[in-house]
Amino acid sequence: KPQLAWISLVSPLFTMQILLTMSGTGVWHAEGKNLKRYYESKDAEKYVQYRKATPPLFPILIPGLYKNLPLWVKRWLCFEWERYEYKPSSTREATKS
Q: What pTM value is reported for the model?
């Protein structure tokens, strides 16, 4: 039936939309401001290297390949969107100065 074919196409897109944009999901809490625990730990440099070499949604890609991709490719093909990047709070930066 053709209707079932459309459902099989829409379902993964709907699931991706929920996981990437809805608060309360694993991706929402694992990225962005919630990365503080990794970037401000004693192993922060290891995590920075891991993030540079590993795509967020497709961790099975070859790390050397991903590490050398241009940022625009990472953003468009691997969902490495700016909203998921860690940005330290400005109050913390002010106290460091």
A: 0.57
How do the pLDDT tens digits run along the chain, 97 residues long? 677 787 788 888 888 788 777 776 666 566 666 778 888 889 889 988 888 888 877 777 676 788 888 999 888 888 787 877 777 776 444 445 4
On the 0-12 / 13-18 / 19+ scale of CB atoms within 10 A, 26 is: exposed
Given a contact cutoff of 8 angstroms between Cβ atoms, the answer to whether 55 and 80 are in contact is yes
Angle, CA 64 vertex, CA 63 and CA 69 arms, to 5°: 95
Residue 39 backbone dihedrals phi, psi, to 5 degrees: -75, -20
